[in-house]
Design goal:
Shape: elongated
Helix content: 25-40%
Structural class: alpha/beta
Largest sheet: 8 strands, parallel, barrel
Order of helices and strands: EHEHHEHEHEHEHEHEHEEEEEEEEEHHE
Mean pLDDT: 95
Low-confidence stretches: none
Strand content: 15-25%
Distance between the termini: 21 Å
Number of strands: 18
Bound molecules: pyridoxal-5'-phosphate
Number of helices: 11
Length: 378
């Protein structure tokens, strides 16, 4: 028997979330009266589809126009899994040998420095390598700064003339699309200034930009958007009022539950768990649950982090340990050994709620679900 803990991955909800994104993009376009081509959606499935599994993602996102990853090896894996549409390598390639993988899998890559252009020039390829020129719009991680964009563009165009590359357009990544609503104005103005002279395609929107910055996705130009976290049922704005996953009509893709394996009666003044961080104020009933930080539940989850038992909310009481966590179920009369405790997702609190109580973001928690947790795919 495996431990009584289970993660459920819902490809139906992933499909639903993709449809929500498509509907939203369509709505923006209709609202702004844009006549240009439809946005293409390249679902982001890096980090093993944010912990949900590539095989599930290939099925659930079958309607997407492309899939985006960071890991070179994921390109081949996605082709093996039967994905025939576009693939995008978000962070570009790391060494010349990677260009062979791009050639074999016919994947598109970001190009963010002159060294990569050099490597593309020297590569022996069967087909032109499709590239996006990545612009640094203020994140200051990857991408050409404004003054180098023209030079990079010209070099890539030259390689295009030689049949080495096919230059699709410009890509960029916003640093603050999830923060204050104005935070995008400056990078967006910069991107417009740089790209206005070109007819090329743009590829600029993550989940936050798609959900709250319609001007960046409802364009006259051809446009590819790159939603990640929202496809897994979490809001990049976390628990921000009116901007939760539920407010955006998103449904949880991953749900985690574990069973109660012990129930303790503790008297007022007694403490629970390592470090005695929870002390009972009155006679209390504490349930011990078969899930700990080695399963991926955040150890930083504070006292008060919500869970759901028998349809009733309860809260973490005491420090999360490696294999167990403890919850206060004093107010739930019918709690028994073997009852399921819903930790996040369907029937439980949202992943964003758990993240907020843990000083984490949903991305970290979803990606960290441990291998030892049995998965059920629905
Ligand atoms: C991860 C990533 C995304 C998706 O971001 P979300 O916030 O999950 O939507 C988009 N673009 C790039 C370049 C990324 O690395």
């Amino acid at each position: 028997m495996t431990r009584p803990i289970q993660a459920t991955i819902s490809s139906a909800n992933m499909r639903h979330n993709l449809e929500q994104v498509a509907r939203r993009l369509q709505y923006f376009r209709d609202e702004s009266g844009i006549q240009g081509p439809d946005s293409q959606i390249f679902a982001v499935v890096k980090a093993n589809a944010y912990g949900h599994g590539l095989a599930t993602a290939v099925q659930a996102f079958a309607q997407a126009d492309g899939l985006s990853v960071i890991e070179i090896e994921a390109l081949s894996r996605l082709r093996e899994l039967g994905w025939q549409k576009s693939l995008l390598l978000l962070e570009g390639f790391f060494e010349a040998a990677d260009i062979q993988v791009l050639d074999r899998t016919r994947a598109i890559t970001a190009v963010h420095n002159f060294e990569q252009i050099q490597q593309l020039a020297q590569a022996q390829v069967q087909h032109p390598i499709q590239v996006f020129l990545k612009i640094n719009s203020g994140m200051n991680r990857l991408g050409f700064v404004a003054k180098n964009v023209d030079r990079a563009y010209q070099q890539l165009q030259q390689l295009q003339n030689q049949g080495q590359v096919q230059l699709l357009g410009f890509m960029s990544h916003f640093a603050n699309a999830d923060a204050q609503l104005q935070a995008i104005a400056e990078p967006w103005a910069l991107l417009q200034k740089i790209t206005d002279d070109y007819d090329d395609m743009l590829c600029i929107c993550n989940s936050a930009a798609i959900l709250r910055h319609p001007q960046c996705s409802a364009l006259q130009k051809a446009n590819i958007v790159r939603p990640g976290i929202c496809l897994y049922g979490s809001s990049p704005m976390g628990m921000l009022e009116h901007e939760t996953a539920a407010d955006y009509g998103l449904k949880p893709a991953m749900s985690l539950k574990a069973k109660i394996i012990e129930i303790q009666e503790v008297d007022a003044g007694q403490s629970v768990g390592y470090g005695s961080t929870f002390t009972a104020q009155h006679k209390s009933k504490i349930a011990v649950v078969a899930c700990g930080y080695a399963d991926g539940y955040p150890r930083s989850a504070a006292n008060g982090t919500p869970v759901v038992v028998n349809g009733v909310r309860a809260a973490i009481a005491g420090r999360v340990s490696m294999d167990m966590l403890t919850i206060d179920v004093t107010h739930i009369a019918d709690v028994q050994l073997g009852d399921w405790v819903y930790l996040w997702g369907e029937n439980g609190p949202s992943i964003d709620e758990v993240a907020a109580h843990s000083g984490r973001i949903s991305y970290e928690i979803l990606c960290a679900l441990a291998n030892r947790v049995p998965r059920v795919y629905e």
